[in-house]
Amino acid sequence: MSYETRVIMNYQFNTCDIIGRGFSSIVYKGINTITKENVAIKVIKRQFSDQLPLIQNEIQILSKLQGRNILKLYEHFTTQNNIYIITEYCRQGDLGQKLKQFGYLRQEYAVAIIRQIIDGIYVMAQQNIIHRDLKPQNILINEDGIKIADFGFAKPLNQLQNEMNVGTPLYMSPETIIKSQYNAKSDIWSLGVLFYEVLFGYPPWQAQTEQELIFKILNQRISFPDVPPVSETVKDFIKQCLIVDPYLRLGITELLKHPLIKRTTKKAEKFVRPTDTESTEQTIKSEIPNSSEPWTSNSSNKKLVYVNCKNPQVNAILNKYLNTKNNQVTNNNTVTKNQPLLDEISLILQSQFSLCIFLNNIISKLKDFKLITPLLNEKCRIIFSKHLQSIKDTIYKQLIESDNKFKFKDWQLFCKENAYSRFSAKFLLENNQFTKTCQEYNQMIKSNKSLIIEYQKYDSEFYQILFGLEWKVIKKIIKNLIIEFNHIIAQNIDTSNLCNKINKSQQIEISFLQQLYYYYEIVDKYYLKEFDEKKFAQESNIQQYMVVKELKISDYLESRQLIKRLMKS
């Protein structure tokens, strides 16, 4: 076979110096005849017209990106027969070749590579671009560092519409495999798979088909072999990248703050999520007791509340409550023969309201914790949000829509009492926050509806909790949540000495664990059979679990004993 030297403008290459091949292209090692600098010259035959959009896209993307960890584009030329793309030359090949040569890389080398890839992803994020095909073969190695290459599938996020799956399935995020959905965190999933492979020599999940792959992702926890050993910080980083729910998966800004990556680097721009502007016909300023103590009227603990009052009946209730002197309603001291029943109504309503506050508190805390089991966080958010939605809607209909959901015998009489106005006002003011919490849940479901429906094929529990409150299934899921969360806490607390102090963050975690266990008991005791509102109101004593108390090692050990019994049940 004969070789020849070819010249294109001020670049020259010999056809024997092949450094890479593609379906429609060959990459040669070349030289800039002016600067004498080595370059890579990709030659694409124009006869492969179906590949031209990818080539043009790669040129356009590379022209926008400027970063030390992005492959540098020098020039591009088009002739009658060929397209030439001139880029920097990476003499050490690609990361895939290194893995073939060495099997895997030591942790310190792998971390150094990942840090540079993250810098490259950050540069792309600044331009609102995602790569969509991050894998070892597309990571080039040069003397001055790592270079992300092959931007044929890359696109600006605002141009992603009705996309087909592109890239390599083993590195695709679950939302991409299932529904061809791409987002700013799709590359983060690919990064997690790539990092795992660099450390151990193989990806975290291996499969022959896409269906088998997604089944394993949704049903098998990510596990780490004992050899080669890697640090817990590395494991945590990979877990954060490989969270199934893209809403919970870390973004590039959060990755830069991870202990594994955090160092002197360019400051990432802070992303502020836009919120929908709430249209309000009337804004009411009111002083109400702290929401954690909804039944006291301690005037020293006040906050400013803004509520949307479109419903005339809501306005009437709030005006009566808020415009009364000192926000107090004069009590009617006349005791009637119906007083025990009226007190029972008040007790039941108060217990249900407290349960709403309790659930709202759990949902807000759950967002801060990353769990190992695939989809466990998502399932629990669905459970708590649906339960909150159900209770708050029932109370609202009881108070405002004259729908006697609780089947109170003396409801009309109770509505004439000051207790009705007082309770209704306090509930309506807090209901604003409950509604926002449920809207976040509804938005999550709406945004991922098709994806979640697909998940049901691989996890039947999703169907059972998404379309109804199936309490036996819920009990099982909450049990798994408690066991896993207890395992997370146990790794960070030394229980060998009862005199050891628990720091503030540990106090919060233990308190949250106790709240989860209490919710499990509520489900087990009251919801597995027909719910008895009166019995719950009399026995639940829910308010004691709504305040974080000072805890000791002995308190945690007591909780652990309860959980050990739970594990055996």
Automatic annotation (TrEMBL):
Cite the Protein kinase domain residue spans from the record. Answer: 13-261
List compositional bias (Polar residues) regions by residue number: 280-296
**What is an example of a GO molecular function annotated in this UniProt entry?**
protein serine/threonine kinase activity
Q: Which GO terms describe its biological process?
A: autophagosome assembly; regulation of autophagy
Q: Where is this region: Disordered?
A: 272-296
Matching entries from SUPFAM superfamilies are given as: Protein kinase-like (PK-like)
Keywords tagged on the record = ATP-binding, Kinase, Nucleotide-binding, Transferase
Provide the residue positions that the database annotates as binding ATP.
42
What InterPro entries does this protein's entry cite? Atg1-like (IPR045269), Kinase-like_dom_sf (IPR011009), Prot_kinase_dom (IPR000719), Protein_kinase_ATP_BS (IPR017441), Ser/Thr_kinase_AS (IPR008271)
A single cellular component GO annotation: autophagosome
Q: Which Pfam families match?
A: Pkinase
What PANTHER family has UniProt attached to this entry? NON-SPECIFIC SERINE_THREONINE PROTEIN KINASE, SERINE/THREONINE-PROTEIN KINASE UNC-51-RELATED
Could you identify this protein by its name?
Protein kinase domain-containing protein
Which organism encodes this protein?
Paramecium tetraurelia
